């Protein structure tokens, strides 16, 4: 039972769910980037993802469970960690010994959670309604046009870009930290940290590029 | 050197404490931080006031008794030193220095700047030892060959003095660095492998029971540790724990 409740088990659970989401993010980015390269490819990939049985009824529920688990566990850990120091310091210089990103994962995580709410409102719910509530003829070419419409608003584009900055900060600490949590700290860790930090910048920057590109190409 | 000290004063574990301001003069850069507090206490005693209570023992950085959160950092602004090794030359004339006890639910304040760190002892008692056969056929430790790297890593982990700076520095008041150092120093040696499974499970269980927070890998503990205990020890403990849990 200790394996489920101990502090180390919780760390490992956070790390594993985080790594799963990192892999999902790369897949999401690759498909999104095709909207910049070739709208037809984007349409066919979107249609495949939206109508493939394995993606829709196996991968998607696993992903949603993974997201919920990561957020719930993160909040549980934050509450427990705050209770471990009931009287706070009058003077505390966290900047002298750790990065802002590492100390404020709950803030970057909360922004990402809020962003996911907006993202689901923009794409996931309308898609579910379109497919399963309303009856429409199958249209394999609608995805790019719908995507462009979403990024017409400068406010929405701005909110997306801001969220991606927070995503970069979350990944900057979280991705490399997940390996430490699982006990991976050796001579290869420095190189691995380099890769994780490159990923933490590259993927969110790519998402920002896509959002701005779509906004400017109306 | 003229300084303004803001020191946490608390009559006992149940009383509500507060920061009190004490101006102090005539402090030399070559004095240690604790010597500066000795000067203050002498002045307070001469004035008939209650001296500031703080922990200290060896005053040479090896016992782990001294603590103090100084200007927002455990053991003050210098690196790889304990409070007793911290020199006043690290501060400037006219500075204000805020001095607080180490803060954690598992380190309750006893009085002023003294906290109860017996939670660390209970973690040690849960498994931080090697059982020795004393029936007359004890094997000489030197008769068992130990890989040089393992011996060095074990020794480095064993240099942890258990001062609690890792807990004090961590935003989560986590004791992972301390516990992992104590787990590692035995896990790396052949003599420690016999009890490896139960050791890590018991020590981590005790650590959690004491109310320390979870490690979120900020690395603050490693930076503030006066002995430079590495985060590699936490990774090793995580591996040891996972492997012990799977063994059951």
From TrEMBL, chain A:
Coiled coil: none
Keyword Transmembrane helix: yes
Transmembrane segments: 12-33, 53-79, 100-121, 157-175, 196-216
Keywords (A to Z) from UniProt: Membrane, Transmembrane, Transmembrane helix
GO cellular component: membrane
Highest taxon listed in the record's lineage: Bacteria
NCBIfam families per UniProt: sdhC_b558_fam
Name of the protein this chain belongs to: Succinate dehydrogenase cytochrome b subunit
TrEMBL record, chain B:
Its EC number(s): 1.3.5.1
UniProt KW keywords: 2Fe-2S, 3Fe-4S, 4Fe-4S, Iron, Iron-sulfur, Metal-binding, Oxidoreductase
Swiss-Prot/TrEMBL catalytic activity: a menaquinone + succinate = a menaquinol + fumarate
GO biological process, alphabetically ordered: respiratory electron transport chain; tricarboxylic acid cycle
Entry annotated with the keyword DNA damage: no
Cofactor: [3Fe-4S] cluster; [4Fe-4S] cluster; [2Fe-2S] cluster
GO molecular function, one term: electron transfer activity
InterPro entries referenced in this protein's UniProt entry, alphabetically: 2Fe-2S_ferredoxin-like_sf, 2Fe-2S_ferredoxin-type, 2Fe2S_fd_BS, 4Fe4S_Fe-S-bd, Beta-grasp_dom_sf, Helical_ferredxn, SDH/FRD_Iron-Sulfur, Succ_DH/fum_Rdtase_Fe-S
Bound cofactor: record note: Binds 1 [3Fe-4S] cluster. Binds 1 [4Fe-4S] cluster.
Domain 2Fe-2S ferredoxin-type, residue spans: 1-103
Residue span(s) of domain 4Fe-4S ferredoxin-type: 151-181
Domain of life: Bacteria
PANTHER family (alphabetical): SUCCINATE DEHYDROGENASE, SUCCINATE DEHYDROGENASE IRON-SULFUR PROTEIN
Protein name, entry field: Fumarate reductase iron-sulfur subunit
Origin organism lineage: Bacteria, Pseudomonadati, Bacteroidota, Flavobacteriia, Flavobacteriales
